[in-house]
Write a structure and sequence with these properties.
Chain lengths: 511, 511
């Protein structure tokens, strides 16, 4: 299938803007086929108008109709076959098993929301019937349910070209909620986006939906992003990416006349707490486990364990065992290609900067690779240095971790008080650590979205009990999750109907 | 009980700042006893620190313990007896039945949240147990529930000195959620706030809670408000008031390093749609009903019907009957004292400004009163004028309404497309209007928080199915309600626990 590189403005292919520069396959050095056209302001306006018109029809579709649509998208993604896998591998530098797994996750998410829709209970329907004889005042008939917000704008993530991208979790939950989606493709994997958009378009056709329900905006153009998030027709924005870019979007959204929810999932250092007896008994084992978790996807996961908090006086044998094991394990790790050359440069710059920080020691570096590859790195510092270095709370996107040595449990608690918001934290402890772990967990829970015991943070299950969010900067909206079935509520809001005849009620609120 | 006028910083009475000017009883002209002390920056800091310390203890209380606390507050408010009623009447110029009713509502809200807590299901506990044998990957044990955000700042409303003030809906829902409250008293009713704060303090003592759970900040000082909403320890803000003040707070909150939810319930014109056959058959009756709803509390309700959309060509007999009946009914209405002299001045200025607008006609004015009283007013305009006059979408706080004449249903739909967000809208129709009403309701529902059929918007039931919110400017947070049991979720957020031993789990998430 040749790549046309055009924008999907509803079901129209549109190429009014400039061509972007070609994208090269890092591994082969070949230019990937296809030129991509930066969307113009007109194209964006048209996409948003089409989406808004489509909203008025799409929101009236039954839960089953929307469920069928999501299932159809899942089926059409699988119908893209190996071409999607090969193309995504080339654009992301991620290996086949990872991409095949991510495709499974993407399809699984769509199907999960389809199941949720067919169940129906998620709309939180509430009915208080009239009490005409109540004293001192009668009660009117009041019925409430969650209804869709309107047009949703979603930005593709760099690090999940399928599962957090064109038909990823934000899109699936918005479409499930009854909201049309205007998607901004990520410039790192535009052909992947195009292939998935074709799948969505096929599903729109087979389900006989208004094509304004989905548009794909190509190109790397900050003005276009600004236009989208400040447009009056956009009623919510979903974004997964860096704190820097996320906060630019947030500031622009703050300028709107009408406030709208911004669901930004930004940075996280995912601190790992190794409790005193755990480091004494299993120091080598936990160190190796942490290195293995850090290496997943070259550390390019939002839940990558970036900071390891360990109790030790710097000379104790157990602490040294942990440090030595971690360093040895890391030194053996192979270099790897990052998602994009820009991310490789960014990672290397962050590591070099860290090397210059007073009070921070480089413990180990992974194997060197070729010039397109990056090497893992492990640093160490103490609590006092961490406390005075805001830079050390910033996420290094990639496989670099920082050991923070705490003299005792009191210092560990002090570390928690300094901590900004995170997606996750793990407590690694033995039964004999439980009392201290409990004390830690009571405050730590309020700094994270997900608190983990004796497991690594990488691996985010898609289920009802998942929470992928948390205090800022993990998320710009602490009350919501971007993974799992609860993600749908981000794009819904309550509407109350008072004294309505059945004909004017949504069908789920009728007697 | 003499009024001391001091700030409640936890359970310490504090008066470090300047005294405010005395407040006079408009009806008697007497100075109300008590000087009030503007809180200082230090006092505010102390209150917030105490609240944050209290949070760590208060959040661990059981649902039953928090329920007992809310019940105790309700009981202590009733124990204040008639002094509270008399004082609130004097400070608000509202009549005894209204204040007694509002006290009942306030106490009822506290008891409703107590019942909700004892039920427990509202925490949305979700448990996905481990599936160690699942292929290709095992599932970890994941459990999630809603947990409190932290310290909540609440601003008292002018127009509900009890039900949306010191122990009103925001306080009740925040305390129920497990969040300490730092309350900013409204300068219009500081003694009412003091009396209610005493009741809360007694309840804190009888329930043996950390007194940092509640503080009351007195005085009218914008720097203090800024300090509160931008303070890092504050995790959410509740506000009911004007769009102007609400947006000042919103802009300040936007400057924070950590974004937090701002629950501002601001302006609403609550449009009333009189359908074609309704105006033909029951024009006089509906006109009188609208005037009666408008007059409630001198129109100082957030759900006051401020705009009436009627189909007519300006000459048709039915439209004239409606207009004549409305004008006659309004002309008979007695003048009334507003909540404060400033509101009286603001109301009169808005009415005078409206009189000068080209295309806007003054239809009727209510009876004149003394110099402390305001008179009701009724204006009319056509759709074209409404479309080009942004001022006409702004709420006039008080008993002034605007009839917008639409030539036909198409113009009525055009009115809806122009409409900003509102708390409520009502459709008044006959069975023969149902087809048109249905079309109208499908778009109108997305402009409001509550859609009403053949009833007036005033009267906000406190129940599970209520939604008191809506698109901006009705609310700054479209996804939440400030009235009814669902208000509690504004101060909670999901936390997921993975692979946690029972000892480290919140009790509601244990097997």
């Amino acid at each position: 299938m040749s790549i046309h590189g055009k924008n999907f403005i509803g079901n129209e292919l549109s190429a009014k803007g400039d061509k972007s520069s070609k994208i090269y396959d890092i591994n082969s050095g070949d230019a990937l086929n296809g030129d991509f056209y930066h969307a113009t302001s007109d194209e964006v306006s048209t996409a948003l108008s089409l989406a808004n018109s489509a909203f008025l029809v799409y929101k009236q579709k039954t839960q089953n109709q929307r469920a069928d649509f999501l299932d159809a998208i899942a089926e059409e993604i699988m119908n893209l076959g190996d071409e999607l896998v090969v193309r995504t591998m080339a654009e992301s530098n991620l290996p086949r098993p990872r991409i095949e797994g991510e495709r499974g996750r993407t399809v699984g998410q769509l199907k999960m929301f389809a199941t949720l829709l067919r169940d129906g209970s998620w709309v939180e329907a509430s009915i208080d019937t009239a009490l005409p004889d109540r004293q001192p005042l009668p009660r009117n008939d009041l019925r409430k349910m969650l209804r869709p917000l309107g047009v949703v704008s979603v930005f593709e993530a760099s690090n999940f070209p399928l599962a957090f991208s064109c038909a990823g979790g934000d899109t699936a939950s918005a479409l499930a909620a009854g909201c049309p989606v205007v998607m901004k493709a990520h410039a790192a994997h535009p052909a992947t986006a195009e292939l998935v958009a074709r799948a969505i378009l096929k599903a729109i056709e087979s389900c006989d939906l208004d094509p304004g329900v989905f548009s794909l905006i190509q190109g790397k153009n900050y003005a276009i992003s600004t236009q989208i998030v400040t447009h009056p027709l956009v009623k919510a924005v979903g974004f997964t990416g860096s704190e820097r870019v996320g906060m630019i979007l947030q500031q622009q959204i703050h300028q709107r006349a009408e406030p709208i929810p911004f669901y930004g999932e930004l940075g996280s250092i995912n601190p790992q707490f190794i409790m005193p007896n755990k480091v004494n008994e299993n120091g080598a084992e936990i160190a190796q486990g942490l290195v293995a978790s850090l290496m997943m996807g070259q550390g390019q996961f939002c839940t990558s364990p970036g900071v390891w908090v360990v109790i030790g006086d710097g000379k104790s044998e157990n602490y040294q065992t942990f440090i030595t094991s971690a360093s040895e394990a890391l030194t053996e790790q192979r270099a790897g290609v990052m998602l994009t050359p820009a991310m490789c440069a960014g990672y290397n710059a962050a590591v070099e900067e860290r090397k210059t920080l007073s009070g921070v020691t480089l413990l180990a570096t992974g194997q060197a690779g070729n010039e397109q590859e990056c090497s893992a790195s492990l640093f160490a510092t103490d609590l006092a240095t961490f406390a005075k270095s805001p830079l050390l709370q910033e996420e290094v996107f990639g496989f670099s971790a920082l050991v923070v040595r705490c003299a005792d449990v009191a210092e560990m608690m002090q570390f928690v008080s300094l901590l900004k918001g995170n997606l996750t934290a793990s407590i690694h402890g033995l039964d004999s650590d439980l009392a201290v772990s409990k004390e830690l967990s009571l405050t730590l829970a309020h700094k994270v979205g997900r608190l983990i015991y004796n497991q690594m943070p990488t691996g985010v299950e898609v289920c009802a009990s998942m929470n992928h969010g948390g205090p800022f900067p993990a998320s710009t909206n602490i009350r919501t999750t971007s993974v799992g079935s609860e993600a749908i509520i981000r794009f819904r809001r309550p509407i109350c109907y008072q004294n309505m005849p059945a004909e004017l009620l949504p069908s789920l609120l009728r007697d």
